[in-house]
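Q: Entry one of two.
A:
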Amino acid sequence: MWISKKILSLFLFLSFCSFYEPTENDVLFFVEEYCKDVYPHRSINQLLFVAIKQQKIYLIRHGHMVTSYPISTSKYGVGNLIHSKKTPTGLHIIEHKIGKGVPSQGIIKGGVYTGEQIDLEHYPVTKKGDFVTSRLLWLKGLELGKNLGGNVDSYERRIYIHGTPEEGLIGKPSSHGCIRMTNHQVIELFNLAEKGLNVLILDV
């Protein structure tokens, strides 16, 4: 994949932004230029942008920042291989939205609310198990050989944006591959993000 020097410079700039908070304009400019450069045949005017080094997710519509939230990506790092427990990169879409009406502490297994609820942990400690709570946005990769098909398929890996009981760990990598959010924020995002919305995940 060919990337222009300008995009490479911006990519490096945002990567170094893990030491401080990039401005809203920094993020908007980078995403617009990156999408035009890397996906020239796609019209990407609305998307969720997941910045792994920043541990943040941004909702962008038509060049405007709608909102942003802290997240938690994989504690095992970045990668697209099945069974790696790493957070995949590249362009995705929201394939399914699951959990409408589920309580904020409700446990979802296999895409179904179990009827059980779990206590939230607000301190930075790990609970036993890898629970999905309140809402989930199930992602499907769009880049064949990178996050779609074979042993790198994000959908088959069940990569979600979802709520977690480990809210005290949000803001630092601690998941098993998915993108975790606090429960009230993932419910808010669930109501804002429609099925089919683009999701760009990058290690910046």
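Q: Entry two of two.
A:
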Amino acid sequence: MPRPRSSGSQSRQDLSPEQVNMKLVIFDLDQTLVEFITVHDEAARKLFRQFFGVDARLTEIDYAGRSLTDSFAELARRKNIPNDRVKPEELLESYEKLFAESIPRDAAGYILPGVEELLEALSRTGHLLALYTGDSKAVATSILSATSLDRHFRFAVFGTDAPTRAGMVQLALDKAE
């Protein structure tokens, strides 16, 4: 679906009224739409105990804007775990399972105030809603399914899709076209 542009190969005259007024709205997930940090902390604690025999929580580092694997690497550095013991793919696979097991049955309370109303309003006005998150697809899907927020988003870009946040935004823009 084309995104309205002021320049480029498609002029505004070639677009339908809906396309001219449509906007791409990209949301981050954690601490923007939902507050699952306690679940992330519990899953990270279990993960680091299982793999390294130490207590560790994501809140011990500045995890904002990082992918999960980057966060694991930083947390391991903080805990003086040698790099050769940190296997990102193996950690992520285990973390995804631990995270899914840690989500409470009633996750509606983890949605931040006003989010559902905002997403409903934007959806009604025909905007294209997308999600980008440093979480992996499995973790984000667990959150979106548990909160029923998944119905609002046309597509998502995950921390495993691109090495940087800028790359993730570019992927979102590419998907929107």
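A: Comment on entry two: The chain has two domains: 12-35+109-176, 37-102. Residues 1-12 have pLDDT under 50 and may be disordered.
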